[in-house]
Amino acid sequence: MTRSIPKQQLTDTAETVLERRYYLKDAEGKPLENWETLCRRVSNAVAQVDLDQPDYEGLADRFFTMIYYLDFLPNSPCLMNAGTDLGQLSACFVLPVEDSMDGIFTSIRNGALVHKTGGGTGYSFSRLRPKNSAVQSTQGVASGPLSFAAVFDAATETIKQGGKRRGANMGVLRVDHPDILEFIVAKQDQTRYTNFNFSVAITDLFMEAVKNDQEYDLIDPSNGDIIRTLRAREVFDKIVDLAWHNGEPGVLFIDAANRDNTTPQLGKFEATNPCGEQWLLPYESCNLGSINLGQYVKNGKVDWERLGATARLAVRFLDNVIDCNRFPIPEIAEMTQKTRKVGLGIMGLHDMLIQLELPYGSEEGRQAAAEVMAFVRTEAEAASIELATMKGPFPAYDERFNTYPARRNAALTSIQPTGTVSMIADCASGCEPYFSIVMIKNVMDNDRLLMVNKLFERIARAEGFYSAELMEKVAKSGTVIGHAAIPKRWQEIFRTAQDISPEQHIRMQGVLQKNGVDSSISKTINLPSSATQDDVRTAYMLGFELGCKGLTVYRDGSRDHQVLNTVASS
Ligand code: UDP
Questions:
Q1: Is residue 217 part of a domain?
Q2: How many Å lie between the centroid of ligand 1 and the Cα of residue 436?
Q3: Is 273 known to be catalytic?
Q4: Could you give the ipTM of this predicted complex?
Q5: Whether pLDDT at 564 is above 60
Q6: Atom nearest to 275 CA in ligand 1
Q7: How far is CA 164 from CA 306, 324, 561, in A?
Q8: Whether residue 142 has pLDDT greater than 90
Q9: Which CATH number goes with the domain that contains 142?
């Protein structure tokens, strides 16, 4: 018998998204589920893992409450597939690309199997020998990383991810690979490699050479030969110029990532998942989930106790997901079970800051964000240590290499884009500020619907400055700034992505990275269309100095559509 519970009201957008892609359907395409039964399916499947644990009783209900009331949402594949025959529950994978025909096409095959189940894949092409180098077996010449990347791209195009998500890939090339210049400009033609985000893996050595205006070596990965040297600044300027033009390539600070590698005994990081927030070793996968921070403000203060309880329960949930996951290939099952990485993230950071009445771009805003993230990380680690006592530490844990306390998961936190799950939860995505406060949606021919941010509407009505006329004006200007009817302090608090300076965006990413993010952060650094190449250069330099593990910049209007957004919302 099901108990009757207070109903969670979802927005129309959330219901539409769920109906289209999350609810299980019958043969005619009619939904067989609603939000409540979906949450029951997911929580029951994930709780089942603990059938033999002393605290099994009530665990499914606790998971259910956390998900149903939108306090925490697991990544899309878990919502879609938990408790179904497909049963693949992770969003992120990294697959190695070995320098051989067999290696390359094995990787394409494995990637196809991952995409089929709704996962995204990251590949480093850095091990492939450069274009035109010798191929012994055929006495011919190698066609190089980019020509193979095109084959990966074509394969992805053909396999739509489980029919519910399109294939998403990250393609990485080290800055010291001989084909780097070709890679940097590869996506200038926006019709090519459309299933990829491309990122250059930048080393500390390279950044030093940029600062000191020195040359650096390009090395053939197949034999260690130095092929040529390039002036680091020229290469850096090229990356900056292309990113300024259309946002790609992104940059990944690979040495910063490897300094935080919690299992160096198993190998090095070479690539991230498609949106950049999760560094993984070859064949690792990771399941993600995000706490909806907007739910944790009570009387203008953070409700630490409830937040801590959610973070701990979320770790239990994500850790269980590993054990009820159907992995697409045995190598992934083996690696994932060895390190048991999970990606606990946040969403609705902006909703939280608004309720705390702190501007996103302010020092106080950053401090609050840092404090919350550090707290989530501390609670997550405590939960993981407790789980290790209960069920054993992650199998690769080895006191000789790992100086931290024995815990259940080699990595705990990362901040995801939450492209779709934030739509279900009706909050600002990941750690991003809102993109707009009022939007006009054209419904029918002449019917226009005003979509007003829920927090802004509540405050504007309570303080008596709400009017349809004002909302129209805000929608048209695209900002709350400069409208005399809106009190100055609310203008500051409701600044959106484009009203926040690139420096403030990066500083937010930097403090979050330093305070509680194990892996990395998916974040867009928004620049106005008037930004110069110099602004992009300064942004990259600052991100590097602040210890970010990667950066994505986007200059307003520089692309017809943004891949990250398209990926997230497709
Ligand atoms: N991802 C993917 N395809 C998509 C969207 C996302 O493969 O269409 C993967 C990718 O690895 C990304 C991760 O899922 O980094 C998390 O993305 P997001 O948080 O937007 O997913 P959500 O759970 O909100 O759908």
A1: yes
A2: 22
A3: yes
A4: 0.90
A5: no
A6: 15
A7: 34, 21, 20
A8: no
A9: 3.20.70.20
